[in-house]
Amino acid sequence: MLDIKNLHVKLEEEDKVILRGVNLSIGPGEVHAIMGPNGSGKSTLSYVLAGREGYTVTEGSATLEGEELLEMEPEARAAAGLFLAFQYPVEIPGVGNMTFLRTAVNAQKKSRGEPELSAAEFLKLVREKAKALKIDADMLKRPVNVGFSGGEKKRNEILQMAMLEPKMCILDETDSGLDVDAMKLVADGVNALRDAGRSFLVITHYQRLLDHIKPDVVHIMAAGQIIRTGGPELALEVEANGYADILSEVN
Ligand code: ADP
Ligand code: MG
Ligand code: MG
Q1: Where would I find the ABC transporter domain in this sequence (predicted)?
Q2: Pocket test for ligand 1, best of 9, 11, 86, 221 (most atoms within 8 A of CB)
Q3: How many domains does the chain have?
Q4: What CA dihedral angle connects 144, 156, 65 and 72, to 10 degrees?
């Protein structure tokens, strides 16, 4: 599904190298987690995959089902089936959540050559998916994320994901700032979307989220590289011992 090979990235404005040869391969239906100390480049990796400005790829590739993502515009990446839930979801004043979702879903349909949803079809679908995520109708009417609590913003991102039905979902610290109940709701939303044809990359600083979203593979990232790969037990090792042991093995 997603193949990242020898990815090197630096900041566009300064000569600061952030990613130093990231290799990562995620198969269809797999859930991978990336953990790692603050500042190791986890968010940068997700930004670069999404096509955010400000970064320069100096080497390497990232393909989604064999198509080079790094050469596509951000919209084309989304149309190809990439979805990113960010650590800090953006607020969009003046744009109703419902309007935003309908525009996004229909743009996606159009780019895939599928018929757009009618107002009635969309309404039925969004209500059904919102209910499953315990999102109330009021939240659908408000401007996107404006005045939403941290938990509401995260649930709203999972709703966007559920509506867009992407192939490759990347969640960057979707658990940060959430209480246990909100985190479970987010995890349940993700688990409901797990499917043989859909893959997930879950970036998290803490092991806790991985009790609820069980990963197939866990990677540890440090100083812009993946330094260890293992099964779920690797996350438990980090939880128990911190990153120091793993870092010292590499240095
Ligand atoms: P993580 O998500 O693992 O905490 P980040 O990807 O946010 O790490 O950051 C990796 C490193 O790159 C950090 O040292 C961070 O300060 C730096 N960095 C990332 N983006 C920028 C930017 N736009 N300007 C300056 N430094 C940045
Ligand atoms: Mg960070
Ligand atoms: Mg981060």
Answers
A1: 2-248
A2: 11
A3: 1
A4: 20
